[in-house]
């Protein structure tokens, strides 16, 4: 995977994660703002309705004014929306700089207002003070009924403590002895309790409902669903684009299967799919080229096979008219030569097809290029006795003679070039090795008529023959140089032709890297 694509994808994931977190935080804050406002109105509601049901609550509970800024106000001093809510019997919580203000409409249409610093603790202590006053005014035998009534009215759990093991910690007892009540809480999220000491010394415990929990499971479930939905939406958008591009690749594949070999995938902006499209297009071009080569081969092979087959047929017919053994042997030798020519042609075709359509599995290993060149030269000297074939190896080249090659195929490539040069030379062929630390080069030169510059690329085309000195009469099938180029391609090198400056004829050159790369990309096909 390219580093640029990885960094881009990683950045997108970081940005997406940050956006999802911001969305969840905003949602968490928004939902809890509404929940907190609702809780601030629901939690003190039992106590506020109790105060609204008591005639002259300021007189009954004189400590309300000093502790909680208790006031009785007119409704017209409030906003219309607040007045409307109070008229419907709702408890309203208003934010202020000194703390939340809790409002409830009284029976005489006035409004009772209390201000708390901490709603949960202040409401718990205020409820405990109200309960303490009522229970202290009753006889012990009357308190059970009153406890049940007060528990229902304030939506709390109220009970008298009679067993020593149910007493709280010593510091709570110290505070209750000093103030008459003591607020304590096991943890921030647990329900608060208030220990109350009545006037006769009896102890009662009041347990409040749980405090406001901003991390309640419905909220967390909502956040999980929102985060999952956002991630699913982003993934859907990403996969939608990928799916669209993959469908485009699929469509082009179907078109190619129908025979539209020139169909190609349009590369988009997505690096992931653009690389796939580029690879697919490269494959399509390769397939198109192979199909074209196959058609050319079928046409050329059918043409090349006609001549020897026709000669064989003619020879067979001539055998019937032979009157003596000498003529019969002459025709049989001709037929044998034609069969040999067919065998060589088939071998050339199979070699070219194997190299052209994927190539052999080259097992490159270290071999001496100079030894291969000298072996080819010695072999060709025996075949072409009328031509002087020389191998030129500079002394410095001996140091770099070893190269990663496939000896059999490299031998074939050099042999094709030397054999061609010997056929077209007037009398001299020279094979030169130029080797260094990085590159191997083998030049095959002759003193023949050479090749016109405009035909330098044409000679490497399969079944190609020139109209000048290198003609059908010189032998060959037009595959030798094509095989040479393909062999050099699979070695990661190139084969090209030019004019020999010294001998005046053609100069064919083979160039390839001396050592194979560890992770070399496939070279561009010629």
Average predicted confidence as pLDDT: 83
The general outline is rod-shaped
Proportion of helical residues: 40-55%
Total DSSP helices = 14
Distance between the ends: 27 Å
Unreliable stretches covering 5 or more consecutive residues:
467-475, 519-526
- Number of beta-strand segments: 15
Strand content: 5-15%
What's the story with the biggest beta sheet? Answer: 5 strands, mixed
Question: What class, by secondary structure content?
Answer: alpha+beta
The tally of domains stands at 4
Concise summary:
The protein contains 14 helices and 15 strands. The chain has four domains: 40-207, no CATH class; 224-294, no CATH class; 295-355; 360-513, Histidine kinase-like ATPase, C-terminal domain (Heat Shock Protein 90, 2-Layer Sandwich), CATH 3.30.565. By secondary structure, the protein is an alpha+beta fold.
Describe the model.
- By secondary structure, the protein is of the alpha+beta class.
- It has four domains: 40-207, no CATH class; 224-294, no CATH class; 295-355; 360-513, Histidine kinase-like ATPase, C-terminal domain (Heat Shock Protein 90, 2-Layer Sandwich), CATH 3.30.565.
- The chain contains 14 helices and 15 strands.
- The strands form four sheets. Strands 10-12-13-15-14 form a five-stranded mixed sheet. Strands 1-4-3-2 form a four-stranded antiparallel sheet, sandwiched between helices. Strands 5-8-7-6 form a four-stranded antiparallel sheet.
């Amino acid at each position: 995977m390219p580093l640029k694509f990885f960094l881009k994808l990683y950045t997108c994931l970081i940005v997406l994660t940050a956006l999802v977190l911001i969305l969840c935080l905003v949602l968490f804050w928004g939902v809890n703002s509404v929940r907190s406002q609702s809780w601030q109105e629901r939690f003190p509601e039992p106590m506020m309705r109790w105060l609204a049901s008591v005639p002259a609550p300021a007189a009954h509970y004189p400590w309300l004014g000093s502790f909680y800024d208790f006031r009785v106000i007119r409704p017209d001093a409030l906003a219309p929306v607040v007045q409307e809510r109070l008229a419907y019997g709702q408890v309203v919580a208003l934010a202020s700089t000194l703390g939340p203000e809790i409002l409830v409409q009284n029976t005489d249409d006035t409004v009772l207002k209390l201000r708390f610093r901490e709603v949960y603790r202040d409401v718990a202590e205020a409820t405990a003070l109200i309960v303490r006053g009522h229970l202290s005014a009753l006889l012990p035998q009357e308190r059970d009924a009153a406890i049940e009534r007060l528990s229902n009215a304030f939506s709390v759990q109220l009970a008298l403590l009679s067993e020593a093991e149910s007493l709280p910690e010593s510091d709570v007892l110290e505070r209750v002895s000093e103030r008459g009540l003591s607020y304590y809480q096991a943890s921030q999220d647990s329900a608060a309790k208030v220990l109350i000491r009545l006037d006769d010394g009896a102890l009662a415990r009041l347990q409040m409902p749980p405090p406001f929990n901003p991390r309640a499971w419905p909220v967390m479930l909502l956040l999980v669903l929102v985060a999952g939905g956002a991630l699913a939406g982003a993934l859907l958008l990403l996969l939608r684009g990928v799916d669209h591009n993959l469908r485009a690749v699929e469509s082009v594949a179907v078109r190619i299967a129908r025979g539209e070999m020139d169909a190609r995938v349009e590369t988009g902006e997505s690096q992931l799919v653009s690389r796939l499209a580029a690879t697919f297009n490269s494959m399509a071009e390769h397939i198109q080229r192979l199909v074209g080569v196959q058609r050319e081969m079928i046409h050329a092979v059918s043409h090349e096979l006609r001549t020897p087959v026709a000669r064989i047929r003619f020879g067979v017919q001539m055998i019937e008219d032979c009157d003596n053994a000498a003529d019969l042997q002459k025709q049989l030798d001709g037929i044998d030569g034609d069969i040999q020519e067919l065998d060589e042609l088939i071998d050339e075709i199979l070699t070219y097809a194997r190299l052209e359509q994927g190539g052999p599995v080259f097992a490159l290993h270290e071999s001496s290029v100079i030894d291969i060149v000298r072996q080819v030269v010695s072999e060709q000297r025996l075949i072409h006795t009328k031509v002087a074939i020389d191998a030129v190896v500079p002394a410095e080249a001996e140091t770099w003679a070893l190269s990663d090659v496939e000896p059999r195929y490299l031998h074939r490539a050099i042999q094709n070039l030397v054999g061609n040069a010997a056929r077209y030379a007037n009398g001299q062929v020279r094979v030169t090795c130029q080797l260094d630390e990085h590159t191997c080069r083998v030049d095959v030169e002759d003193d023949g008529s050479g090749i016109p510059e405009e035909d330098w690329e044409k000679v490497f085309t399969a079944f190609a023959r020139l109209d000048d000195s290198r003609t059908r009469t010189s032998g060959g099938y037009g595959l030798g140089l094509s095989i040479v180029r393909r062999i050099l391609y699979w070695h990661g090198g190139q084969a090209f032709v030019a004019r020999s400056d010294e001998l005046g004829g053609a100069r064919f050159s083979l160039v390839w890297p001396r050592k194979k790369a560890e992770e070399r990309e496939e070279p561009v096909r010629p």
